[in-house]
């Protein structure tokens, strides 16, 4: 995406003497009458913000690639865009000293390493910042959990099936081998129940991992 144009000095009055400034996104004129006490003004055409003063002390302006104007600490190195349809992570460069009469220059947004993932639930694409596959991801669009890659659910499904069958076999062995003993000591039934219950829980977890949705990356990780 193309960066917005650089900020210029504060507006000059138009022919009628009313102070105006160009929107830094769509270049439309913004009337500053009665707004000169503000740090930023909102364009009535594109609804994006444009700074008209230096940021408050200890703050700086950052323009996201979606044109959202952010205000953050001047020591910040990473910030996230709050817009639901963007959610971009912006890595900020070193702080630049800017002349006092000029509004702050936007830091260059650098997209963090990661990959774009297609959600297995809703089919929308989102940025996944983990540097490995076989992890669980929450889609910012539908808010549902899916596995990034199919290796993790396949591996865990097999592990739970194996443990579950072992527990059931142990329960069957206890049932067959301790029937006479259980008639005299009823507490033996508890061991049977525990073995069968653990086996059932593991098989239910295996079904969960076997049925979990899988999200696939569009490209390999950066």
UniProtKB/TrEMBL annotation:
Gene Ontology BP annotations: phosphatidylinositol dephosphorylation
GO CC annotation terms, alphabetical: late endosome membrane; lysosomal membrane; phagocytic vesicle membrane; plasma membrane
Record's signal peptide: none
Molecular-function GO term, any one: phosphatidylinositol-4,5-bisphosphate 4-phosphatase activity
Chain coiled-coil ranges: none
Major subcellular location class: membrane
Residues that span the membrane, as ranges: 159-177, 189-211
Superkingdom of the source species: Eukaryota
Record keyword Phosphoprotein present: no
Catalytic class of the enzyme: hydrolase
Catalytic activity: a 1,2-diacyl-sn-glycero-3-phospho-(1D-myo-inositol-4,5-bisphosphate) + H2O = a 1,2-diacyl-sn-glycero-3-phospho-(1D-myo-inositol-5-phosphate) + phosphate
The keyword Cell inner membrane is annotated on this UniProt entry: no
EC number: 3.1.3.78
Localization per Swiss-Prot or TrEMBL: Late endosome membrane; Lysosome membrane
Membrane topology: Multi-pass membrane protein
Record keywords: Endosome, Hydrolase, Lipid metabolism, Lysosome, Membrane, Transmembrane, Transmembrane helix
Cited function: Catalyzes the hydrolysis of phosphatidylinositol-4,5-bisphosphate (PtdIns-4,5-P2) to phosphatidylinositol-4-phosphate (PtdIns-4-P).
Name of the protein in question: Phosphatidylinositol-4,5-bisphosphate 4-phosphatase
Record organism: Motacilla alba (White wagtail)
């Amino acid at each position: 995406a193309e960066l917005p144009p650089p900020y210029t000095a504060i507006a000059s009055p138009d022919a009628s003497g009313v102070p105006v400034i160009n929107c830094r996104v769509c270049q439309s004129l913004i009337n500053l009458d009665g707004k000169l006490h503000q740090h930023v003004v909102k364009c009535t055409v594109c609804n994006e913000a444009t700074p008209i003063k230096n940021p408050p002390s200890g703050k700086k302006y950052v323009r996201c690639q979606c044109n959202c104007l952010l205000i953050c600490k001047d020591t910040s190195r990473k910030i996230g865009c709050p817009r639901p349809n963007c959610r971009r992570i912006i890595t900020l460069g070193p702080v630049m000293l800017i002349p006092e009469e000029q509004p702050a220059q936007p830091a260059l947004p650098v997209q963090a390493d990661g990959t774009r993932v297609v959600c297995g639930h809703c089919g929308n694409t989102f940025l996944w910042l983990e540097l490995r596959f076989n992890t669980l991801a929450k889609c910012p669009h539908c808010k549902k959990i899916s596995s990034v890659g199919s290796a993790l659910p396949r591996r865990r499904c097999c592990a739970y099936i194996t443990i579950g069958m072992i527990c059931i076999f142990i329960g069957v062995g206890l049932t067959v081998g301790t029937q006479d003993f259980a008639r005299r000591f009823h507490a033996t039934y508890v061991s049977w129940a525990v073995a069968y219950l653990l086996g059932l829980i593991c098989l239910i977890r295996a079904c969960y991992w076997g049925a979990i949705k899988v999200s696939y990356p569009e490209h390999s990780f950066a």
